[in-house]
User: Fold this.
Amino acid sequence: MGLALAAGILRHPLLTWRMSTLPEAEPGDWYVCVLATREAVRGRGIGAGLLADAEARARRHGAAALSLMVSEGNAPARSLYEKFGFGERGRFTVAGRTSIRMGKGMETPNPR
Assistant:
């Protein structure tokens, strides 16, 4: 089920994430707006597949870097992003919740 679900999600990217440029980003930087998997299918590589696809799309459009936000308390997501070469680029707190901005240059390869 995990692979079939991942294939279905990757065919429908508008339902899973949008990428857009951030006004404060440097020209050529892209932002992963939303990346999520249902709790019942976590740990099956679906998030990694979505992130790899987002990065491939950004590369095809000539992105210089890719960035995203993650909740400070979301250790599994942070671990995934770090495996993909993302590093912390800043923090901000809104209504008592701290988020981390993570990013990577497109020269950083994906895990194999």
